[in-house]
Amino acid sequence: MCSQPTGQIRTQLQKVLASTAFANAERMRRFLEFVVEHTLSSPNEHLKEIIIGIELYAGHGEFDPRITAVVRVDASRVRTKLREYYLSEGAADPLVIDLPKGSYTPVFREASIQVDPPRPTTASFTEPSIVVLPFSNLSPDPEAYFSDGLTEEIIHALSSIRGLRVVARTSAFALKHRNADVPEIGRALNVGFVLQGSVRKSGNALRVTVQLASTSDGYQLWSRRYERSLEDLFAVQDEIALAIADMLRVGTANPPRALLAGNAGDFEAYEWYLRGRHHLNRQTREEFHRAIECFEEASVRIPGYAPAFSGMAVAWLYLGLFAMDAPFDAMPKAQKAAARALEIDDCEGDALSVSACSKAMFEWKWSEAETLFRRSLHTQPRSDLSAHLFALFVLLPMARIEEALGMLEDAKRIDPLSLLVAASRGAVLLMARRVGEAELEYRRALELDTNFWRALVGLGRCHEARGGYEDAIVCFEHAKAVSDNVPTAIGALGRAYALIGRTKDAHLLLAELDNLAKSRYVSPYGRVLIYLGLGDDKVFDWLERSCNERAGWLMYLATDPRFDPLRKDVRFHSLLERLGLPRIAYSTTVSG
């Protein structure tokens, strides 16, 4: 702490809190004010995460150190805000308030006293990189399917241009309604450029406005307004992609592939396709079925519309994979839709990925699945979906851990804010017994969404692997509450109850699964985990039923640590052989 009197420090604090950097960040203001005042009043007390969490967040129900990293996240944001202030309004201030990385205790120093320079906030880019933010919807229709669909198509068109790294949809749309400035977006996504715009559709008239800005300084580099008829939308999408390619001086030897709907001249079919994509991205059982209906409408209008069949295939895959519908009902429909898409266009990347997933999960033909995934990645080398699914459906089941992590790292570069990629990396690390690294990935996902149930279950499993059953149960109970009782969360919770001797509670969850099965499909997974925790031989009955129902989670029997107690049983060996999975001897130790 510097020699300046307390009054001078408080005056500087009030100036910082009133600045533009902090003006609309009430949460950051409260954080900074608390840590400064605490340090001034208790200079010999080192501030800890638990103190800040209890004082600032516990009253709002936001703080549980076993689950959330809210204190660390907000501390990082305050550091960014302070840096922003002292690079602008506070550049001439004689006193600097700093929050050193790795600490919650602020330091106060004279501006003339130099410290080690911070690392550059803007990345050094080895290739041009861009994020397309969701276009604003200025149409009379409040539904955003059209503006969101246009954004997705421009992302897709730019992704097909060699030499340009394009952030995937998930990460781009995570910034919707956040009002982040361009340099901040550049830091968060590690990109050099931001494309944003608006779209207005009224009758047959279309107006699209776009702007390209540099993340290094926030300056606008290019803008254009397109006033066209709806039938010209496809040409507008291509024009935008080619103009961006020209601005960034990347190759256009492989210009964006024309949309089949555009070639057919049936704009109504394309609108049905966009509605389908809109519902598909909402990721619930009801929305998946709505998406399928929309894709079917598009395919009726254009029987040769490959993206519509590909969209159907993805929706049916997710319904089967997440056990929202019985896999034996959903997966054959996914296969059929993917096959139809590939008949029309054998380079349809999503359809190739769905076919590969089906070969793995439904038929246990791992080599054929790998061949299809590699075809998909060759067709769409910048596809985060193909890379992600390849890691989960082939590499992890075959215990090819480093390859899986490498593939997910590629997906992360394209989709840095993806909850699914973070959770999948956590799952791979957890199955590799690298618990400490897995926990970091799950906490990263929970920083983005504290109610993401897959990460909650994963974090609970990390606690469980270290013997922290009570902390694990907190995570599993939270996951069960926010996931609408998915068997994954129920089974994890029931197993944890059983392991600490709460057998009555474990049996109550078995009864709950029976009750749920009266109104919807319930995967056998939950019962397998609970009987596994109870040490009940019925676990093999439910494993057999899981095989008969083609439950997707069976892919991980060779690697999942929870099944280690069964690995010496001949029945388990037989099961692995039936599934074509490797038999691996694991060390009983875990890292982290």
Name the structural class. Answer: alpha/beta
Number of strands: 8
Low-confidence stretches: 114-125, 252-264
Based on Cα principal axes, name the global outline.
globular
Could you give a short account of the major beta sheet? Answer: 6 strands, mixed
How many helices does DSSP assign?
27
Helix share of residues? 55-70%
Radius of gyration over alpha carbons? Answer: 26 Å
Mean pLDDT: 85
Percent of residues in beta strands: 5-15%
Distance N to C terminus: 35 Å
Would you write up a description of this structure?
By secondary structure, this protein is an alpha/beta fold. 57% of the residues lie in helices and 8% in strands. It is built from 27 helices and 8 strands. It has helices at residues 6-17, 20-23, 26-41, 49-57, 70-86, 145-159, 169-173, 182-189, 233-248, 260-264, 267-280, 285-301, 306-321, 327-344, 349-361, 366-379, 384-395, 401-414, 419-431, 435-448, 453-465, 469-482, 487-499, 503-516, 525-534, 538-549, 570-579; strands at residues 95-98, 107-110, 129-132, 136-137, 165-166, 193-202, 205-214, 220-229. The strands form 2 sheets. Strands 3, 4, 5, 6, 7 and 8 form a 6-stranded mixed beta sheet that branches. It has a two-stranded antiparallel sheet with strand order 1-2. A hairpin with a 5-residue loop joins strand 7 (205-214) and strand 8. Helix 3 (26-41) packs across helix 5 and helix 19 packs antiparallel against helix 20 (435-448). The chain is globular and about 75 Å long. Mean pLDDT is 85; it is low at 114-125 and 252-264.
